[in-house]
Amino acid sequence: MSLNDPERPGGDQPGATPAQPEVGFAEPKTAAPVPATVPAPLAAEGVPTRFACFVTGTDTEIGKTLISAAILHKLVERGQRACGMKPIAAGAEERDGELHNEDAAMLRAAGNVHLPQHITTPFMLREPCAPHIAAELEGVKIEPVPILAAYAEILGASDATVVEGVGGFCVPFSDDFDSADLAVQLGLPVVLVVGLRLGCINHALLTAEAVIARGLVLAGWVANQVDPDMRFTDENIAALEQRMPAPLLGRVPRLEQASAAAAAAYIELAGLPGWPANHTRN
Questions:
Q1: Is residue 86 among the annotated active site residues?
Q2: Concatenated DSSP letters for 80-97?
Q3: Complete domains list, the chain, with CATH
């Protein structure tokens, strides 16, 4: 049985966890109530009419932004009105009277729908550290409602959306809200970026378990070469392909010039839920 497989009802015992819904766009098990302003695509059930995904990673600094930008680049190539969202960004610097974050800026450059920064990044924090610490230093509490409201605005202005998480999958935002909770409330298919370095097999499999345990669909994973000196890279990828309960979407080498266009050449996304089959705009 793979991690994405449902438990069999016949094996349930009294007091045991109820069987999981069949793999696909199942409703999250523990999702908090979502504001009524958030459109139906967040329900993650049935066949999606538009593309949206949540990009997470095995760790921080493993290429989530690069892969998110590459996905946006391919969407724009297919004629989509594509918008990236980085709900929480830590490590912002003030430039010309406005906070600037390199990750958020890269997503903005890769898409072709440019909304105000307070929508694409509702929480822009100065300190380059864990989000809950950065927020506390600024007297801010990171809460889901502003993020979900901003996401609803992005849905209304675009054909396709890529939401990039922060750090790994379970990064805390506050005492009672973390990145996994946000993924559940959005209810989007998850794309996992695996940073290829020593320990990546364990990190990837544990993250996959965490994603699926929350009732989310792990739509695929991307292998990104973060350690150019890693030994036995091919063997590590083969081990992951054998064990991961989702398809490998691509293997991105260490790029001399890391750009959305360069990374996009190494990933294939046609099998992702809601991926546009044809160009829709000139």
A1: yes
A2: --EEEE-SEEES-EEETT
A3: 23-29+50-264 (3.40.50.300)
